[in-house]
Amino acid sequence: MMRISELTVRFGSFTAVDDVTLAVPPGTVTGLVGESGSGKSTLARAVAGLTPYRGSVSGVARGRVQMVFQDPYSSLNPRMRVGDAIAEGSPASRGRRDAEVARLLGLVSLPASYARRLPRELSGGQRQRVAIARALAAEPELLIADEITSALDVSVQGAVLNLIRDLRAELGLTMLFISHNLAVVRYVCDAIAVMRHGRLLETGPVQEVLAAPAHPYTRTLLDAVPSLAHA
Predict the structure, then answer these.
(1) Chain segment 137-172, per-residue pLDDT in tens
(2) CATH number of this structure's domain 2-64+141-229
């Protein structure tokens, strides 16, 4: 069980994340939702060890949290070939590297031949698949996906979400899935955690929270998505 306990992030006098406590059971996907500026991405960066914080994160080893970022165009080194980018974080020996890269590319439904390509030769959706493969190469105990479809064309968003669902089922991934889109969260996640102004307002099984939200802010988010509000 990955547990976030009383986690607080401050930037000077500004409190970005305020005393958040949250548990993510193994093999499940928890959706972290809220409007822009709610603190959800800052919380994720703290859990990943990218931002200093007060409080504790337990149940996951240091270095075993991997993050997939929103923009696939800036998250990959433009001068590094796909295979090298994926292999960089893998514990596989040099002799097994090519086979491991091919296996990881297969997991994200890309041909092994893509290992020789540069990021500029790929589409946005393909780059995001490479970013996911690179994160999986490190064999993470927790995978954080931070708005991973919001920078993609609508035509490929669904394919990436289906990939996440397939990987979760195949690998038993434990994930923290950040999104402002409640329809996406309902499709991908088991549980939901709602944030606003750095504070956690409501948590619970995704179907229960979306069917009967306990906090008015959650209802506001839900009302902004008619297909969910009337489902």
Answers:
(1) 999 999 999 999 988 888 899 999 999 999 999 999
(2) 3.40.50.300
